[in-house]
């Protein structure tokens, strides 16, 4: 049980870090010049009142950045799932005597 909790904690931290890194890179590349868009600005998308205060082009950039970041995370989880499946198929079955 301890290893399961440790794996969940490390996995969440690792995938969260990768997501933030991808989002940061996307925003540096695609954010409108002088808009001051950062990763923290993405939090405003979750609040409907703050979201309406953002310009439409900034909302579009943030949504696209989050979409691409999440796609990266899903692909990483898919790779881990396939590896886990392949390792599980290699386990030996206990034969009853």
Account of the 3D structure:
The chain is mainly α and 97 residues long. It has one domain (2-89). It is 70% helix and 0% strand. The chain has three helices and no strands. The protein has helices spanning 2-30, 48-52, 56-89. Helix 1 packs antiparallel against helix 3 (56-89).
Offer a few descriptive terms.
mainly alpha, 97 residues
In what range is the share of β-strand residues? under 5%
Any idea what the radius of gyration is?
20 Å
Question: In one word, what is the shape?
Answer: elongated
Compute the number of strand runs.
Answer: 0
SS class: mainly alpha
Helix content: over 70%
| Secondary-structure element order, N to C | HHH
- Helix count from the secondary structure assignment: 3
Query: Please, how many domains?
Result: 1
The major pleated sheet works out as: none
For the termini, the CA-CA separation is 30 Å
Give start-end ranges of low-pLDDT stretches.
Answer: none
Mean pLDDT: 89
In brief, what are we looking at here?
This protein is an all-alpha fold and 97 residues long. Helix content is 70%, strand content 0%.
């Amino acid at each position: 049980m301890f290893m399961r909790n440790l794996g969940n904690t490390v996995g969440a931290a690792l995938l969260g870090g990768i997501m933030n890194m991808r989002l940061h890179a996307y925003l540096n590349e695609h954010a409108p010049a002088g808009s001051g868009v950062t990763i923290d600005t993405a939090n405003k998308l979750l609040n409907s009142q703050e979201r309406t205060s953002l310009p439409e082009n900034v909302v579009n950039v943030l949504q696209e950045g989050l979409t691409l970041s999440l796609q990266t995370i899903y692909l990483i989880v898919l790779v881990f799932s396939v590896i886990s499946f392949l390792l599980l198929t290699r386990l030996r079955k206990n034969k009853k005597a």
